[in-house]
Design goal:
- The protein has a three-stranded antiparallel sheet with strand order 1-2-3, covered by helices on one side.
- It is mainly α.
- The protein is built from three helices and three strands.
- It is 49% helix and 12% strand.
- The chain has helices at residues 2-11, 41-62, 85-103; strands at residues 14-17, 24-27, 35-38.
- It has a single domain (2-103), classed as 2-Layer Sandwich (Double Stranded RNA Binding Domain).
- The radius of gyration is 15 Å and the shape is globular.
Length: 104
């Protein structure tokens, strides 16, 4: 279901070419702060999906409500449906470790 949710959100992505730099800029509506900028459209799409995935994991970890996308609702209805925070924290930590390699 998570994969379907990400794919659905990415179908709503908006892209534009920034005239000053000639780079591609992408956003996903309803996901505040999710954006990417890259030299090619393919790289922009790839980066945007990674940012979206990280945003979703962080929102789940924090207990934030996620936007409903094309009828797909990942929000837990009760504690039995909630993803264990320890699992999300482990996944998020792995993503952050991977991202730190790009910044060093």
């Amino acid at each position: 279901m998570l994969t379907d949710y990400i794919r659905a959100a990415m179908r709503h992505a908006k892209y534009e070419i920034l005239t000053e730099s000639g780079t591609f800029y992408g956003t996903v509506p309803d996901f505040q702060g999710v954006w990417a900028n890259a030299s090619t459209l393919d790289d922009c799409r790839e980066e945007l999906q990674q940012v979206l995935e990280d945003w979703i994991l962080l929102a789940i970890r924090r207990g934030d409500r996620l936007p409903i996308v094309d009828g797909l609702d990942l929000n837990a209805r009760d504690a039995a449906e909630a993803m264990p925070k320890i699992v999300v924290a482990g996944i998020l930590a792995g993503h952050l470790r991977a991202l730190s390699g790009f910044c060093s």
